Amino acid sequence: MAILTDCKTIPELFASRVQQSGKQTAVWYKREGEFRSLNWWEVSQRVSCLASMLQQFGVQLGDRVALLSENRLEWVLADLAIQSLGAINVPIHAPLTGEQIAWQIMDSGAKVVLLSGPAQSAKLVTLKEANRDLIFVEFDTDPAQPLPPGVLPSLLGGIHSFLLKLQEHGKSLPAAADPGLDPSSVATILYTSGTTGEPKGVMLTQANLISNAVSTVEMFRADEEPPRDDYSDKVRLNFLPLSHIFARTCDLYIWLVEGSQLAIAESRETVIADAAAVQPTFMNGVPYFYDRVRRGLEEKGVLNFPGILRQVLGGRIEQCCSGGAALPEHLFDYYYSQGVPLLQGYGLSESSPVISISTQKTSRRSSAGKPIPGVEVKVAEDGEILTCGPHVMPGYFKNQKATAEIIKEGWLYTGDYGRIDEDGFLYITGRKKEIIVTSGGKNVAPVYLESLLTQDPLILQALVIGDDRNYLTALLVSNNDALVSEAAAQGIIVEPGETFYSHPQVTALVQDRVNHRLACVSSFEQVRKCTLLPGPFTIERGEMTAKLSLRRKVIEANYAAEIEAMYRK
């Protein structure tokens, strides 16, 4: 089945894919512990049914529909249904607090809120009481519990009943039709959970999303000799949050362009088991995930067994893509050594998101690849990366001031520092807002130092601190089992009553590892003191974004006492 490159909107793209690929397997999803599949026609039936229900709730062209759910089949169906009506999807990250969610719903002016179930619904009791006109609909409801005020019955039950009635009467719903959207129409508003500052609503158009998905596919096809047209046997395993634009474009919309199969992982914790079940050929992820896989193999003592990485990722994996944060060199090296290329890309929510991507033919260590077709990239005099093209958002929702600060004369100012080599490869060297300026006036890129530190098997997460300070410090999250084993091997005995992580010999052991890892950098980039934390940085405490980037200001606020103690000693 041929790829689709000429569609102008997502509804047109979806309808064309259904028409072309009808009975081909489209999606795999988990129910009652087992993966089940739907073909493209069956997906279309469910999307049309859900779109009809949304119309009954008064959803029309240009209305906003908030979607608060973990990854699941219904997330995909809901997005396509919202798009088929010409409405605007406002996806909200599932781990957010009720207060954060309510703010985004109200700021966007959403008319309907789709919820995964009672757990998410319970976060919004205050919002429901204060906004009686808002419609809340749950995918799942607990039959043993009365529905809260303002919450309608299960969408899943409604879809199932509707489809049964159609089958009884021998009828079917047509594929969702294009509602007459313009390519410049806003398709989604997604709120950045950014590493600093208040969330801003990134508006992305139909043309933004379509062009980005198509150009990314074309970049990979250029690698193939001859370029492939039929991807119906390829399986993409999705586990990154669909509420984030990385997964939305690079899993969901590329799936529509390619006509491949999309497998939706049950959760982030079940990815390896799910990979064994669906045998993906491709997956997108963040460095944190790929490092967890490597560490897991290392802990089992099988890290360098030939073919072990492909085996643990399902047996059919051809390549993986990494984004959302800098890819440490040791991960790049390990995956390539195992015959599973780990391809780094680069982008922002404001750029739909892909700016550049590596392929197997255009891949260099530490590089984020080359710009995708139609995208221009240049580096400003101060080193900031600028980009221009059909991928750049029209602006932030209801925030012209912030828009004017980031888009100037058509160029998106990314806030990242970088360079382009003589062959056109892009390298990211630091985040403009994350650059540490010490009290001695030295500029330090903390992300690079953190990537060096997390290469050590004892260190899972690291945050380097030092702005306006006379030396650098770090908050570290250890690989607990590995640290306990190493301490025991070195004869470190922690007396009863003492806290293991603050024991002088344990902290000295870790400091030695830090010194070793940073032996390759300058004196002012050395981390003089570190504090071991008893638990990891988490999304739930606001310390990480949905794509698992560290939110520095939040972490520094949460551990202000520990940080100050490192500068008092």
Structure explained in plain terms:
The protein contains 19 helices and 27 strands. It has 569 residues and is of the alpha/beta class. Among the domains are: 171 residues, 3-Layer(aba) Sandwich (Rossmann fold), CATH 3.40.50.980; 134 residues, GMP Synthetase, Chain A, domain 3 (2-Layer Sandwich). The strands form 6 sheets. Strands 2-1-11-10-12-13-14-15-16 form a 9-stranded mixed beta sheet, sandwiched between helices. It has a 5-stranded parallel beta sheet with strand order 4-3-5-6-7, sandwiched between helices. The relative contact order is 0.09.
What's the short story on this structure?
The chain has 19 helices and 27 strands.
Which helices and strands appear, and what pairs or packs with what?
Blueprint lengths: L9 H12 L3 E7 L2 E6 H17 L7 E5 L4 H12 L3 E5 L5 H11 L3 E4 L2 H4 L3 H6 L4 E4 L12 E2 L2 H14 L17 E6 L9 E5 H16 L13 E4 L6 H14 L2 E4 L6 H8 L3 E4 L1 H13 L8 H5 L6 E4 L6 H9 L4 E6 L6 E4 L12 E2 L4 E4 L4 E5 L6 E2 L3 H7 E2 L2 E10 L5 E6 L4 E2 L5 E2 L1 H8 L5 E7 L6 E7 L1 H10 L14 H14 L9 E7 L18 H7 L1 H9 L1
Parallel strand pairs: 1-11, 3-4, 3-5, 5-6, 6-7, 10-11, 10-12, 12-13, 13-14, 26-27
Antiparallel strand pairs: 1-2, 8-9, 9-19, 14-15, 15-16, 17-18, 18-21, 20-21, 21-22, 23-24, 25-26
